[in-house]
Amino acid sequence: MCTGRRCMSLATDLRKRGLKEVYGAVNRDAAEIALEKLSEKWGHKYCHAIKSWRNNWDYLTSYFDFLLEIRKIIYTTNLIENLNRGI
Q1: Of the candidates 8, 10, 28, 16, which has an alpha carbon nearest to the alpha carbon of residue 71?
Q2: Is there a contact between 75 and 63 (Cβ–Cβ < 8 Å)?
Q3: Would you give the DSSP letter of residue 16?
């Protein structure tokens, strides 16, 4: 189970390994390709996180309905909130 700082550390590791290419993709199709590449390279280490992304794909990618500029604000704001929460 992932809790507290360990969970934050795993999330940071996964972002560095390629998750940013998933949520920063230009559209859902490109995001799906990026997730597949991430899974091929890091699926053995992050299998639960990648499985969670796949199981919640429709929900997690609903922000692709917004313009790219708005999407950047959405995920940047969440990252800032997460950082502030950890302080």
Answers
A1: 28
A2: yes
A3: I
Tokens encoding 28: 């859902």
What is the 8-class DSSP label of residue 17? I
Which spans in the chain are helix H?
4-14, 20-23, 28-42, 47-55, 57-60, 68-86
Kindly list the domain boundaries of the chain, sorted by start residue: 4-86
Tell me, what DSSP letter sits at residue 67? Answer: -
Contact criterion met (CB below 8 Å) for 43 and 50: yes
Is the CA virtual torsion 61, 2, 85, 18 positive or negative?
negative
pLDDT tens, residue by residue, 33-84: 999 999 998 888 888 888 988 999 999 888 889 888 777 777 665 555 655 5
Rounded distance between C-alpha atoms, residue 38 and residue 25, angstroms: 13
Q: Say which residue the tokens 């929900």 belong to.
A: 59
